[in-house]
Write a structure and sequence with these properties.
Distance between the termini: 40 Å
Strand content: 25-35%
Shape: globular
Order of helices and strands: HHHHEEEEHEEHEH
Structural class: alpha+beta
Strand order of the largest sheet: 2-1-5-6-7-4-3
Helix content: 25-40%
Number of strands: 7
Length: about 190
């Protein structure tokens, strides 16, 4: 767990529970290594992000309710823009604009990226922004994958505050139909 992730997301109540459990000293030592800056993606995180074809994103409503949404697409639709910024095109869907509306009021977001076959997950905390294709047509067109440029109605940009590679202990391996097909072809 990165020190910045702990510093950003560990609440006083969680710290009190750690004290009660006896694990506080371990996490206090980790927190002591936090920097004053935001976490920067390395090639390990960038590669993992670009290999995903889905993730979950949490945002917060105007009145404080957490909202989690699944985002999916072709592998690589979530793009690494820089060591501190990621983004993806918002494609035409059910037109509820819940996540888009949420980040315009409270920019805090959390992403959960899973690699079920390899039992790996990456958690990202950041500050999100939403731009419409009308407001930033060139950027939205640039961030959308070529096959989806005509369906892109906006884009999400996320400035990374902290990230954490999480323990694989309870990840049940799962495979997509394409992954199973590829495994079958390899074994034949």
């Amino acid at each position: 767990m990165t020190a910045n992730y702990l510093k950003t997301l560990l609440s006083p109540t969680a710290r009190a529970l750690q004290t009660f459990d006896g694990s506080r000293e371990l996490y206090a030592n980790m927190e002591a290594n936090a920097t004053n800056g935001d976490d920067r993606l390395t090639s390990r995180e960038a590669t993992f992000i670009m290999q995903r074809n889905s993730f979950y994103m949490a945002s917060v409503t105007d009145d404080g309710w957490p909202y989690v949404q699944h985002r999916g697409g072709e592998t690589g639709f979530l793009q690494v823009i820089s060591q501190s910024r990621i983004g993806f095109a918002d494609l035409r869907g059910n037109r509820q604009f819940m996540s888009a509306g949420n980040v315009r009021v409270n920019d805090r977001v959390s992403l959960f990226l899973m690699d079920y076959p390899n039992r790996r997950r990456l958690k990202i905390a950041g500050r999100g922004a939403y731009v419409t294709a009308q407001d930033a047509p060139d950027f939205v067109s640039q961030i959308a994958l070529p096959a989806h440029r005509d369906k892109a109605i906006g884009a999400f940009l996320i400035n990374i505050v902290a990230f954490d590679w999480n323990c694989p202990q309870y990840i049940t391996p799962r495979w997509t139909a394409d992954e199973l097909k590829a495994q079958k072809e390899i074994s034949e």
